[in-house]
Design a protein that fits this description.
Chain lengths: ~350, ~550
């Protein structure tokens, strides 16, 4: 039994690693074509991600929300619900989460649980809306979650230009900062890495546990097919609602983390496209919590290092986007990988051994 | 076993047929070899360390129909997939018309004149017949499609073998039997002289099977050579010239099929032991009425009436057989009785309690076991482990779950128990359900459904697609459930199965109950009801 699982894990790690290597290799070719030295570019990228304490800290600052969001996304994906509305749920979580911080005047010991609840409810509201549309009208969640992203984005713009704008900030489209006592504490005053790290670790721990619960079983069963789930006595509609609410709640929590740990205020680009990257991370990590942590680390390093690479060399940041896009393409093609080439290679190796 | 050896001779160099032929014609081995179009020698194919084929020899004579017989998992399909280039063998050689060939892909196989029709059709449903044939072929008109020419040629071929296929019909409009003919037509059109058919009759009605056999005989007349993979003995005896029997991946032997060959003899060689063809009757008298259906009505997926005013009862300790041609409301009835489809009229009671239109969970709680028609999409989560599949219906209950957390140890223990009790052949409980053979998949479902001591069992086509050994096993388990007090509804398209097992036989036609007959009713009488003739209309001789 054990070797089987180990082999399965090894296979997943191998495919993921291969995906990344091929994406980076193609990226290298493009760098070469653009007239730069790929080795130098990747060196700069690596330096940019791990070259100093600050940079490593930045990698983790990015990694926290990405991990939480990707885990949230993975819940929906396991039920074959293609929730790609991460950005919208993140924004709604951030909006709902900042309200207690700006307007409620709570003691900080109360503020944290209250604002976390608000943020999770905000994210869940947005994903729940898509779930309700699916259950009630059979609306495809890919379309609804994607469209709800736009509504959330423009709703956020409306708020930061209008009712929530910082009265002392001139015409700058952002809310006032939350009080200093409300911010997540920093590990060092020189680094941006903050106590949200513990929230991230807690979420990973819970998710490792989650797939061993009967609720996790139920969600996975719906992912195996509506027919078999209904046959087994599971209410598919109810499960879809629960799954999407959980998925959105986690994504909302990532929004809370960004507000209370990094930005301290709302501004227009608060989601910075995390939603799309979270989808890639979830898929690259095979929807498995450990895999997600590893791929979140990789992508955070890529994002942070890419910015430095652009500054230090002539290679544009777009290379990072290209690598990201290639990973998506390879993941989609991975089904073929699994059952075709790689499987055969592994099998041959198994026979020789 | 010793008997088998007496009947069959084996050995890589001298297949029995070859020897017989040589002896009969008196022209020696060379002449015999010329007549052999396919010669596979010492084929070994290994999957995950398991020998699916172990040094198997196979030959096919020109212009003959050769049956490849064996239980599910005996390695028949594997051997043919090697011939068709889908798998590469680890050992052994394949010769086509006397030349050794390395068949590395189906394209190579097709170029050698080998065609294969799989059990699951490989057709693009939204496209027409001619479009499907043209897929993957180069057009003779350059960048323009040669649809018209191809269609005309297909029509001619179709007429030749009386296939009655319209080249412009869309695949989704065709019946299963017609789709199969399209597959055969495609293979022949591509120039197949050697045709491999994988369990072609598994999806056909007896009438359609007769039509197919007629076509095969005609093709044989034309000099085509046909390999028929099957586990149905009647087919071997009725149409095949020679038979090769595999068991557990090994060759048992090959020989000509003559009139002296009996079903029992074939079975023994195929299974390796005698098989029960008769089952004992009830041990106890039927008890109280357990299931009462009163004027049930339901519609099918298209919203058309599927069940009309259906009334019947099933007692404890009783099997009610439901006979009927497929698609006359059997599936809808089973779904209605397990909460998977709403009733639009009537009343449904279990144990005196009104359970009309409840959710599936309620019926599961009331102890209704359901062996669904479709193992792959309904009965099993194919991508999941066997362990998980065993607890699909009770994963929330102790001991499998405690405080909302799954108990892995309980799952492991339950799997071990089910595996030994239901003789499930699998590598480990962590294997995916899709990795199992049909018979073993069905055993997993049986283990899950029958282990909880159900009060009612609804079994829809429980032995469809299973080989003799597995079917016998499933039937035995159903009888056991009945003897333990369950009320059993057995839906089957196999009249023999219905007659063997049922205490009473109900006949369904067009969503209506045509009548309920006693145990051992005359098959002719059942057949008339199955065709929709009312009982009164039956001619006198039938009674």
């Amino acid at each position: 039994m054990k070797p089987n699982k180990l082999k399965e894990g090894l296979r997943q790690v191998l495919t993921a690693a291969l995906t990344i290597v091929i994406a980076l290799a193609i990226g290298a070719i493009l760098v070469q074509i653009s007239g730069n030295d790929p080795l130098e570019a990747y060196q700069a990228l690596f330096q940019g991600a791990f070259g100093s304490k600050q940079r490593i800290s930045e990698v983790f600052v990015k990694m926290i929300p990405l991990t939480i969001m990707a885990l949230g996304t993975s819940i929906a994906f396991r039920a074959q619900l293609w929730n790609i509305g991460g950005d919208g749920q993140f924004i709604m979580g951030a909006i709902a989460g900042i309200i207690p911080g700006l307007y409620f005047n709570l003691p900080s010991i109360l503020l944290f649980p209250v604002s976390i609840l608000f943020a999770m409810a905000g994210g869940a509201l947005w994903s729940g809306l898509a779930a309700w549309l699916k259950v009630r009208f059979n609306a495809n969640e890919v379309i609804t979650t994607l469209m709800l992203n736009y509504i959330a984005t423009f709703f956020l713009a409306f708020l930061v230009y209008g009712p929530m704008i910082d009265p002392l900030g001139g015409d700058f489209p952002q809310t006032p900062n939350i009080a200093e006592g409300y911010r997540l504490f920093l590990f060092s005053d020189k680094l941006r890495i903050h106590a949200g790290l513990f929230v991230g670790i807690a979420v990973v721990a819970v998710m490792l546990f989650f797939w061993r619960t009967s609720l996790g079983f139920q969600i996975g069963l719906v992912g195996q097919g509506k027919k078999v789930a209904t046959y087994s006595g599971v209410s598919v509609k109810k499960t879809i609602l629960i799954t999407m609410l959980l998925s959105g709640a986690l994504t909302g929590l990532a929004g809370w983390n960004e507000v209370y740990g990094v930005q301290y205020r709302l501004l227009e680009g608060v989601a910075s496209g995390y939603g799309n990257i979270a989808v890639v991370i979830a898929l690259l990590g095979s929807l498995n919590p450990v895999g997600i942590v590893i791929s979140a680390f990789f992508f955070s390093a890529l994002l942070v290092g890419g910015a430095t690479m652009q500054r230090m060399t002539d290679v544009p940041y777009a290379i990072v986007d290209i690598v990201q896009g290639l990973v998506i393409v390879f993941i989609i093609a991975r089904t073929a990988f699994h059952w075709g080439g790689l499987k055969r290679i592994l099998k041959r190796r198994g026979q020789n051994a | 076993m010793s008997r088998n050896k007496a009947v069959f001779r084996r050995g890589p160099l001298a297949p029995v047929g070859q020897v017989t032929l040589a002896a009969a014609s008196g022209e020696g081995e060379n002449a015999a070899m010329e007549n052999i179009v396919v010669h596979m020698q010492g084929i070994t194919k290994i999957f995950n360390g398991i020998r699916a084929n172990d040094r198997v020899d196979f030959y096919l004579q020109a212009g003959s129909i050769h049956g490849l017989l064996g239980e599910n998992g005996a390695g028949k399909t594997t051997l043919m997939n090697v011939l068709y280039g889908l798998y590469q063998q680890e050992e052994g050689t394949v010769s086509i018309r006397g030349t050794e060939e390395k068949i590395s892909s189906p394209i190579k196989a097709i170029s050698l004149g080998i065609g294969m029709v799989h059990q699951h059709f490989m057709l693009a449903r939204p496209l027409s017949v001619v479009e499907n044939v043209m897929l993957g072929r180069k057009s003779r008109r350059g960048i323009l499609l040669d649809t018209k020419e191809t269609a005309a040629e297909l029509s001619a071929l179709s007429d030749k073998y009386k296939m009655n296929i319209d080249p412009y019909a869309k695949i989704w409009q065709l019946s299963v039997g017609e789709q199969q003919r399209v597959e055969i037509l495609t293979a022949i059109y591509q120039g197949a002289e050697i045709l491999i058919l994988d369990e072609p009759t598994a999806v056909l009605t007896p009438q359609e099977a007769e039509v197919l056999f007629g076509m095969l005989r005609e093709m044989k007349q034309d000099g085509k050579s046909i390999i028929l993979i099957t586990h149905k003995l009647e087919e071997i005896i009725s149409i095949v010239d020679e038979v090769t029997i595999l068991r557990d991946g090994r060759l048992i032997g090959s020989q000509a099929v003559g009139p002296e060959m009996t079903k029992e003899e074939l079975t023994r060689m195929m299974v390796g032991r005698d098989v029960l063809f008769d089952f004992p009757g009830p041990q106890q008298e039927a008890g109280e009425v357990k299931v009462r259906a009163d004027m049930l009505c339901a519609v099918n997926d298209k919203g058309l009436p599927a069940l009309t005013d259906l009334s019947f009862t099933i007692r404890e300790n009783e099997i009610l057989g439901l006979a009927g041609v497929d698609g006359n409301g059997q599936r809808e009835l089973c779904e209605v009785m397990t909460g998977l489809r709403p009733l639009c009229g009537g009343r449904y009671e279990i144990g005196g309690e009104d359970l009309t239109n409840q959710t599936p969970a309620v019926y599961i709680r009331k102890g209704i076991a359901h062996i669904p028609e479709d193992r792959h999409t309904t009965g099993l989560a194919l991508g999941w482990s066997l362990k998980k599949n065993l607890v699909l219906k009770n994963f929330k209950k102790p001991p499998f779950s405690k405080h909302g957390l799954l108990n892995r140890k309980a799952l492991d223990e339950y799997w071990e128990k089910a595996r030994s009790e239901y003789q499930i052949k699998a590598g480990s409980g962590d294997d995916q359900a899709r990795a199992l053979s049909g018979g073993n998949q069905q055993k997993v479902i049986l283990a899950r459904e029958l282990d909880q001591k159900p009060t009612v069992v609804i079994a829809n086509q429980p032995t469809r697609g299973l080989d003799i050994g597995a079917s016998e096993y499933v039937r035995g388990r159903l009888l056991e459930a009945r003897n333990q007090g369950a009320a059993v509804l057995l839906v089957s398209a196999d009249l023999e199965e219905i007659r063997q097992l049922s205490d009473r036989i109900a006949v369904l036609y067009d969503g209506r109950l045509m009548g309920i007959l006693p145990r051992g009713a005359d098959p002719h009488e059942i057949g008339m009801l199955m065709m929709g003739k009312e009982k009164e209309e039956l001619p006198n001789e039938a009674e």
